[in-house]
Amino acid sequence: MRSLGATIARAAKRFMSSLPALFGVLVFTFLLMRVLPGDPAVFFASGPNAGKEEIEVIRRQMGLDKPVPEQLLLYLYDVGRGNLGKSLMTGQAVTTDLRERLPASLELTLTALLIALVSAIPLGVLAALKPGSLIDHGVRLFCALGVCVPTFVSGLLLIYVFYYLLGLAPDPTGRVDVFTSLPPARTGFLTIDFLLAGDFDGWWAAFRQLILPAMTMALFVIAPLARITRASMLVSLGSDFIRTARSVGLSWWRVVVTYALRNAILPVITIAGIVFSTMLGANVLVEKVYSWPGVASYALDALLSSDYAPVQGFVLLMASIFVVVNLLVDVLYGIADPRVSI
Amino acid sequence: MASATLRHTVWILRGNPLTGIAAAGVTLLVLIAILGPTIVPYDPIASNVSQALMPPSAVHLAGTDQLGRDTFSRLVVAARLDLAIAVSAVGISFVLGAVIGAFCGYAGGRLDRSVGRFVDVMMAFPLFVLAMAMVAALGNRVENIVIATAIINLPFYIRFARAEVNVRRNVGWVEAARASGESHVSVVLRFLLPNVLPAMAVQVSLNLGWAILNAAGLSFIGLGVKPPTPEWGIMVAEGARFISTGKWWLVAFPGLALMLAVLCFNLLGDGLRDILDPRMRT
What we know:
The structure holds two protein chains of two kinds.
Chain A lengths: L1 H33 L5 H5 L7 H10 L6 H13 L13 H36 L4 H13 L4 H15 L24 H7 L3 H38 L2 H8 L4 H38 L5 H10 L3 H29 L6
Chain B lengths: L1 H14 L1 H23 L31 H37 L1 H15 L3 H12 L3 H27 L3 H8 L4 H37 L11 H9 L8 H28 L6
């Protein structure tokens, strides 16, 4: 009970200390929109030929004639009420657009993270168990190459192999093909919604679309995860308590997994948090390659058509997710190592 | 002293020939970037529609694209732009980061804390998203790709320089410099920074690979470089349209170029680190 209380207290403290960062992000997105680009009012006016008076009216409506600090307060007030402005592209509120598309991005990113962890940790452990062996060299080569291949290239090459050459993967566009009827939206994660609706054909269709983009993203992050697992397992396996555990004749599984891995997992959790942040960025590239209807491709389309409210909303969303993930990593850290206290 | 360093370097190179190969690779890349347009067999932007989408052959080593342009020539010419973006971005963040970080580490106190906070805020961002947003705000041009890449690199250099200077701020030779009447600015710039630079050079090499990937990623999504300019990221983007009909060479060769460039810089960085600081080997 005491440890649970401590974990919550720790999480609360961390959350408070991440507030300045979140505030900084808010100010940054504000500056991004109001100060740096030419004149937002011109973008919102009917067209490039809009008259001076029309632009003036829009400027007043948007509050752009007020001093900058006052505009910042108005912006903070708007964000507090969940109003991120309207997208010119879709004609909807940015909040609505983001809410519709976020599950697609999260489903992709979380699946990729799962694939990466499930493959990287055993790889790192195997490499650490036999340093200098063929498996160790293989893992290290893979790690060195893995961080050098851009996600957009590996994604396209996976499409070439699995769609064009082998015909195993479906047409790499979107979350399901047009012939599949969507399940009732409960979680927004299609693979889970199909299961909840008991539609296994639908689940298979969604799963087949998901697996290639998720693999693409996972490939990019397996390398740092496997590398840190290997390094941290090497330290852990070389320590005295492992020698003792071995000498008293504990089983292989008990020694390697229960004692060594448990102690080696902390740096892996830390790196997993950092990796998640790079994945949020890689999302943009992967979603573009696979025409995945997530928040990143939405922001990208908006960006290329000079529609800035969605971009601003997207940046804010990504930063908030990142803050939440960091918080989660911290809580996990406390659970994995009870010695980490406030 | 110098001969000991040399011996150590030779010893490292013998144990790890990859570093030598990587250094040769980087040299080759720089040569290609300099000579690029003069050594290519075809004009990189001249289209020849009768030869469109030809697979690799003896005539077109890396095939041709949808306009019949020679992919190999485009790859070679692109090296200059890709390298220029990465080098200038990393150069800017190296210089700015070293100076800002060094002064923060030397001064400590309130300046240090507020810059530290700012760096924390920047690092609280998915960096690629930050770069995207900055290019959007500053305008969709190549210079702004450089600026955005420089800014997202800045926090690492500030942190690095700050930490390195901070541990040295009160050592004997710094005290001696101060005692002999050097101003604080001169102590930082003439005494502390030169001692920090070698360690930072390692970061530069590791960072260059990352900057190349980042810039290519930005131009892949349509920011910065405009067609028909040859650049590896945009070449992949143009080839992407033909991948599901099996035209692999338009993606594979620019991808390979990116991969080899990044690999060389990374291996060189690892090797340099081993030479400069054997304790940091992993």
